[in-house]
Design goal:
heterodimer, A: about 450 residues, mainly alpha, B: about 160 residues, alpha+beta, 4-stranded mixed β-sheet, 7 helices
């Protein structure tokens, strides 16, 4: 093994282009972490420099799946954003949240638990940030009505959204990226990740019951404020809501069948977005497009090109050799290292650039392990699969560790501050880190049992 | 006609560290000449009487309106007494916390059309009028410009030929 990897590491030519590309990569990531300049600006400029210096050609940057922009990811994200932007004014999300609070009968821990489960479920299908932006305002209102401290609710919802997002291909950007690069379909994620996420969620609700259960008490008269709310008033556009729900159902069925239909998830999402735009009868779609998160989308595009640069010069290959050296080619050890390293890395840095780097690294690693295989035979090698799942679980759940670990956390911290209830970095970590470690332990046991003991 | 011709010379004004309770009390007590009429906005001046902000009833409305309410359609899910509760909670906040910091001012010699230009483009109803040294000389209200317009409309043969 080690002689083999040594041979590969020699194959990486560490010439001037190697060092220039590596320098751009490190500098870009350092600037992204420092948050001195907006990450989208760094992404775009870094990408431009990679092309200007000829490290990647424009042809590769714009058209190559390995060295450039992954349009599967971009179109899947933008299509889902469009679907949500059309659905938002119907009032369906307000309806779901108010209804949930009433099902909980205004009892505070029940609200926290139901909101966590609802957040996780919605987040499995929508972007985490979108989910939190939809549930948090109602949470703030409910807490005001019940005269409760909103901070525990906001933190538990952010964490629930990161947990739920891990369950499906479309739930969290790392999964979208992994699915595209590893050519894994929607049902593969349901089959391999959803079961463990359900376990993690159950453990999570039990844990927050222990942490917050007893502290949350409310006078009965305040509960009446919740019970007096009529959730049906939330629905502002029932016709559009019906259309949206039909299109959303079609889209989700499309996701379930996309592997069978031999279509990319992005195709399904694009079809859903196009269909909903068409049937919504919107004559001025300008604001729906304007509300798409273009800064995030361009961050992705820039990042893909920067990664393309370091893939091309061989830095990623060199890194994959180092990983194999550390784990001595033992794949169980590799998947554990990937999961735990990803978790702690994602707790402190954005998991999007992290996963964007890890994807080609894992593929390079596979190429060294099975040099004679290619295509899905290589990407879906039975011994490689647990590593993809470990990457997803680590990178997605790791975001719960700190206030900056995931975009959803950043959003709730910002909202709390606006409400005059700032959540310090330490306070978030006090809850987030143990909960993250708990979830990764559950995943460790799951991966070990399922893929290395029972082997199914 | 210029700003200084129709402005109300400065009497009442707020200081940045006034509380909101003090501010609204002053709103009610503001005078025009000798008559106590109440106003919907006052300039906020520092120790040197330089303008640092404007506080209007709209700022007060915004202060009781929770930020999350603007993120979604939640107007149907509020309760009786909600506004009063929040009003009580924020009464000791400082004027400087909620005032509009971007002060649009006009010079006392500014023509009326310039004043209208500021009001329409910035959606404001009152302008602090400053002297050459930058100190506030008075306040120009939308209503007083309207009176000037009314006068011109009603008066026979004043300005403009038929």
């Amino acid at each position: 093994m080690s002689s083999e990897t040594a041979a590969v590491s020699q194959a990486v030519v560490m010439g001037p282009l190697f060092w220039i590309a590596t320098a751009i990569f490190i500098l870009a990531y350092a600037l992204i972490i420092s948050e001195k300049i907006h990450k989208t600006i760094i992404g775009m400029f870094g990408a431009a420099v990679m092309i200007v210096l000829g490290i990647v050609s424009q042809e590769d940057a714009f058209n190559s799946l390995d060295l450039g922009i992954d349009w599967n990811v971009i179109f899947l994200l933008v299509s889902m954003m469009i679907i949500i932007n059309i659905m938002k004014p119907t009032g369906v999300f307000e309806y779901i949240a108010i209804k949930s609070a009433k099902i909980a009968k205004g009892r505070p821990f029940m609200i926290m638990a139901i909101f966590s489960v609802v957040t996780a479920t919605v987040s499995a299908f929508l972007d985490n940030v979108t989910t939190v932006l939809l549930i948090a305002p109602v949470t703030l209102l409910i807490c005001q009505a019940l005269e409760l401290d909103v901070v525990p609710f906001l933190i538990t919802e952010a964490i629930a959204s990161n947990i739920g997002g891990t369950a499906t291909l479309i739930g969290d950007p790392p999964n979208i990226m992994i699915a595209s690069k590893a050519q894994l379909d929607f049902m593969a994620f349901i089959y391999h990740l959803t079961p463990v996420i359900i376990l993690v969620l159950i453990a999570y609700v039990i844990t927050i019951k222990f942490i917050f259960g007893k502290k949350l008490q409310v006078r009965d008269e305040l509960k009446q404020r919740i019970m007096a709310m009529n959730e049906n008033e939330a629905i502002k556009d029932p016709v559009l809501l019906k259309k949206s729900l039909v299109v959303l159902s079609v889209t989700i069925i499309g996701f379930i069948l996309h592997g069978f239909l031999h279509m990319e998830p992005a195709t399904i999402a694009l079809f859903g977005a196009g269909l909903l735009l068409l049937v919504s009868g919107n004559k001025e779609p300008h604001h729906i497009f304007a509300e798409a998160e273009w800064t995030t989308l361009f961050f992705f595009m820039g990042l893909f090109i920067i990664i393309g640069g370091v893939v091309k010069v061989g830095l990623i290959k060199w890194m994959s050799v180092q990983v194999l050296n550390i784990t001595q080619g033992n794949l169980f050890a590799t998947s554990m290292v990937v999961m735990w390293f990803s978790a702690f890395a994602s707790a402190f840095i954005d998991n999007i650039p992290y996963v964007a780097t890890m994807n080609p690294l894992i593929i390079d690693m596979a190429k060294q392990l099975w040099p004679n295989l290619s295509g899905t035979e290589l990407l879906h090698h039975p011994d490689l699969m647990p590593i993809w799942w470990s990457l997803s679980l680590g990178a997605c759940l790791g975001g719960n560790g700190t206030a900056i670990g995931a975009s959803a956390n950043v959003i709730v911290v910002g909202m709390a501050e606006k409400m005059g209830k700032p959540i310090s970095f330490k306070k978030f970590m006090l809850y987030g880190m143990p909960l993250m470690i708990e979830s990764v332990i559950i995943c460790t046991l799951y991966v070990w049992l399922r893929y290395y003991v029972i082997k199914i | 006609m210029k700003a200084k011709d129709i402005m109300i010379p400065l009497k009442e004004y707020l200081k940045p560290n006034n509380t909101l309770k003090e501010a609204v009390t002053l709103f009610k007590a503001a005078r025009r000449g000798k008559e106590k009429i109440g106003v919907k906005g006052l300039p906020v001046l520092d120790k040197k009487r330089m303008p640092v902000g404007v506080l209007t009833i709209r700022d007060i409305l915004r202060a009781v309106f929770p930020s999350y309410m603007s993120l979604m359609n939640l107007g149907d899910f509020t309760w009786d007494g909600m506004v009063e509760d929040i009003a009580k909670k924020i009464r000791n906040k400082k004027v400087s916390d909620i005032m509009t910091r971007k002060v649009i001012i006009v010079h006392e010699d500014a023509p009326l059309m310039e004043c209208i230009d500021h009001m329409l483009k910035n959606d404001i109803r009152r302008l602090p009028v400053t002297k050459k040294d930058g100190k506030v000389a008075g306040m120009l209200y939308e209503k007083d410009i309207f009176f000037a317009i009314t006068k011109a409309m009603v008066k026979k043969n004043s300005g403009g030929k038929k």
